[in-house]
Amino acid sequence: MQPEFDPKVIEAMRRWPSVPAVHGWLRLDRRGRWLLIDRGAPGFEEALHGDGDPIRNPQIIDFIGRNYASDDDGAWYWQNGPQRVFVDLDIAPWVLRVRSDTDDGRLLTHTGRLVHTVEQVLASPTGELLVQTDLGPGVIHDLDLGALTLDDSGVLLHGRIWALESSDCPADALGFVRRPRPPAAAA
Q1: Among the listed residues 100, 184, 172, 90, the one whose alpha carbon sits nearest the alpha carbon of residue 139
Q2: How many Cα atoms sit within 13 Å of 74 on the Cβ side?
Q3: Beta-sheet strands, E only, within the chain
Q4: Does the predicted model carry a pTM greater than 0.70?
Q5: pLDDT in tens, 34-91
Q6: CA 3 to chain centre
Q7: What is the pLDDT of residues 158-187, one digit of tens each?
Q8: Which of 71, 76, 70, 108 is nearest to 89 (CA)?
């Protein structure tokens, strides 16, 4: 399910249709924070600065969230005006919070979108709980795992008990790309 991009973004895309995409500059961490990796900064070293710095401006965070989508290959990006900014994902494209106003595991994305349906639930080898939703794949925020009813029969999400499947590679199983990069240039 793709969002409707902001009207100014759509206009910029029409005006400048051939702006190259960027990769490796924006990261979504395990807690749903956007981080900027300033690869153009003087003295940038991947080992020292590669984690990025949190984006704290609420207007920018909202703008990214409203214009966040995926392409047909499962690579997630922020449509920043005419330019696609592909996102490096620590775990999954959505970080899902368990709504505290319900007792049946209803979910909300880190951008404030309501999840309407759950289609699949997976456990990763490192203990994350990943979910395929109508909005795409997400991971349950680690601080919310205790709010879920989880036992030998499965986990209660969206009013239903889901048997836990496990996957060695949740990104492949749920169809998303964790580190999108441009195709290699032809030699």
Answers
A1: 90
A2: 16
A3: 22-28, 34-36, 53-54, 68-70, 76-80, 83-89, 94-98, 107-109, 118-123, 129-133, 136-140, 150-151, 154-157, 160-162, 165-166
A4: yes
A5: 999 988 788 888 777 778 899 999 999 999 999 999 999 999 999 999 999 999 999 9
A6: 14
A7: 788 888 889 999 999 999 999 999 987 555
A8: 76
The number of residues in the chain equals: 187
Tokens coding 53 = 């710095």
Q: How far is CA 146 from the centre of its chain?
A: 21
* Per-residue model confidence as pLDDT tens digits over 88-112: 999 999 999 998 776 666 899 999 9
Q: What is the dihedral of CA 12, 56, 62, 84, to 10 degrees?
A: 40
Q: Specify whether the CB–CB gap between 118 and 133 falls below 8 A.
A: yes
24: left (phi over 0), alpha (psi -120 to 50) or beta: left
Using only C-alpha atoms, the chain has a radius of gyration, in whole angstroms, of 17
Question: What is the DSSP secondary structure assignment for residue 81, as one 8-state letter?
Answer: T
